[in-house]
Amino acid sequence: MESTAQPSPLECPDCHALTADLEAHKHWHSRLVHDIATAVDKDISRRAHTS
Prior knowledge:
By secondary structure, this protein is mainly alpha-helical. The protein has a domain at 17-50. 57% of the residues lie in helices and 8% in strands. A two-stranded antiparallel sheet has the order 1-2. It starts with 9 loop residues before the first strand and ends with a helix.
């Protein structure tokens, strides 16, 4: 029976999450931060126009 060794999880330097695929996590993390920043900008703009 062959042993399939799983790679050790790596820690994201930004959020300290442990992940098996650090590059994919970094891409996801980057997109998440971008989406949050976009939502905040839209909310600030909406509030400025409704005041």
